[in-house]
């Protein structure tokens, strides 16, 4: 691995997501949550395809030249990106984990809601 770490450009975000998905493939907690290795690989790829662009909006993705390493960093004070950013991220995350939006509704003068369900397999 080379020593040069640099910010990922827009065209490199997919490879950052892939590097992170591979890095977490053998994580003990994720292996317990998603025990099937093939399903875990697909879910992690989907997960990081959502997380990487969301994090880049308030931080930076770093990568090594040959994609041996990648990291997501947020600026101080940006660990929590706010409700709107959370909602932009959480619905696609749940969908990538197998949940399906059944109904959506707005509360007058309040927030938008999604009713989601995960079909039994």
Roughly what is the average pLDDT, rounded to an integer?
Answer: 85
Q: Which regions have little confidence, pLDDT < 50, spanning 5+ residues?
A: none
Tell me the fraction of residues in β-strands, as a range: 15-25%
Number of strands: 5
Total helical segments: 4
**Distance, first to last CA:** 41 Å
The total number of structural domains is: 1
Q: What is the topology, as strand order, of the major beta sheet?
A: 1-2-3
* Rg over alpha carbons: 16 Å
Q: How would you describe the shape?
A: flat
Largest sheet report: 3 strands, antiparallel
- The string of secondary-structure elements, in order, is EHHHEEHEE
DSSP helix fraction: 40-55%
Structural class, by secondary structure, is: alpha+beta
Write the layout of secondary structure elements.
Layout: E1 6-7, H1 13-24, H2 28-33, H3 37-58, E2 59-63, E3 70-74, H4 83-96, E4 100-106, E5 112-117
Antiparallel strand pairs: 1-2, 2-3, 4-5
What this model shows, in words?
By secondary structure, the protein is α+β, with helices and mostly antiparallel strands. The protein has one domain (6-117). The protein contains four helices and five strands. It has helices at 13-24, 28-33, 37-58, 83-96; strands at residues 6-7, 59-63, 70-74, 100-106, 112-117. The model has no long low-confidence stretch (mean pLDDT 85).
């Amino acid at each position: 691995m080379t020593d040069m770490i640099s910010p990922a450009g827009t065209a490199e975000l997919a490879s950052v997501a892939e590097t992170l998905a591979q890095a977490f493939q053998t994580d003990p907690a994720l292996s317990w949550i998603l025990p099937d290795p093939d399903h875990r690989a697909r879910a992690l790829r989907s997960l990081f395809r959502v997380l990487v662009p969301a994090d880049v909006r308030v931080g930076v993705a770093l990568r090594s030249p040959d994609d041996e390493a990648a990291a997501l960093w947020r600026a101080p004070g940006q660990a929590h990106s706010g409700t709107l950013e959370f909602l932009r991220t959480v619905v696609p995350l749940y969908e990538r984990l197998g949940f399906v939006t059944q109904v959506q509704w707005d509360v007058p003068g309040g927030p938008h809601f999604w009713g989601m369900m995960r079909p039994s397999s």
